[in-house]
Amino acid sequence: MKLFNLDSPLMRFLSRMTDILWLNILTMVMFLPAIVVGYPMFMSTGEFSLSPQGTLLYFLILLVAAIPVGPALTALHFVCLKLVRGEEGYITRQFFKSFKSNFRQGAIISTVYLIIVYFFWWDFFLINSFQGVMRTLVLGGVTLASILFVFAFTFTYPVLARFKNTIRGTVKNAFLMSVLVLPKTVLMILIMLIPPAACLIYQIIPLALLFFFGAPAYFSAMLYSKTFKRFEPETEDPVGDYEWTVATDETEEAADPEKPADSESTDSKANRDAISEDGDDGR
User: Fold this and answer.
1) pLDDT for 171-212, tens place per residue?
2) I need a labelling partner for 44 at 20 to 30 A (CA). Which of 16, 85, 108, 242 fits?
3) CA distance 246 to 162
4) Burial class for 251, CB neighbours closer than 10 Å (0-12, 13-18, 19+)
5) Of 195, 246, 247, which Cα lies nearest the Cα of 216?
6) What is this structure's pTM?
7) Are 83 and 12 a contacting pair, CB within 8 Å?
8) Diameter of the chain by CA atoms?
């Protein structure tokens, strides 16, 4: 039957769902340390209390456990963009290749972001200590800062996965892009909120967990794929913070693409000099 043909819409849909499911599993494995450490605090209903020193120690442990989070999200978006564009290959190999190549930047960014979230969390608790107009001003300022942070966060790992840049340049460009395509940014945020909201419904928690990371990343890639094409340069020359260099397999493996050309030019010049000297001796 054509329905079960490998090229049928049904089989392509099932194949894509399998890819997303496997990506979700790979990502969740990388999240496990942070989930195990952070679960008692985030799921507590007031029973979880520590001294100030204990809270600080607990947060430091959480920072260490969350180190793989950034590289995992970067690898997730790297593969999802390839799936959307029909450039997928071996899912696992591509995931861990991106995880490895973006580990340092992804880990630093996720650590800084977690610290920012920690301060926002405490700020919302401290707001109750203010009264009147001051409380309104502080609440408005913290809320605005939180919204801008979410905008930058939404595009940070997709940008890191696709473009080579400094950490500062990546975060800056992610925020600028989120503002540039604001409707898509809002839609991506809503898509990311669907799995956590679905987990509030007890009956569909298993299904929500199966696609918790993979499905939002895939549908987000469908939204930002065309936007990225507008910033993908035809050449891969080094660029500044506000410019874009596509992170391809060649650029990941070759740290200095001009160096071989320079070496070849130098060798050729040396050979020409040697030939010239031989010719002079012969004469």
Assistant:
1) 999 999 999 999 999 999 999 999 988 888 877 778 778 889
2) 108
3) 6
4) middle
5) 195
6) 0.78
7) no
8) 98
